[in-house]
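User:
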Amino acid sequence: MAFLKTILIILLVYYLLKILARWFAPKIFSYAAKKTEERFRESFGGFPERPESSEEKVGEVIIDKKPPKKTSSSKKVGEYIEFEELD
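Assistant: Predicted structure:
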């Protein structure tokens, strides 16, 4: 009889913890996420943010420099060898 009581208590505690975790886990995770975000903001807060330029319009494309032209090389890399199968 004591064995059955022990099994029943273990199952009851297991399901009770499962229900409590389902209720409180989202709150705990959101609290941890807020704290982590605050720590990141504190550690990276010293960097200046990128200023928005009033001259640039949204969607406007600005090219700072031209990309280098690709030159096709006509160097002969190697010698072509034709192989034949032997029976």
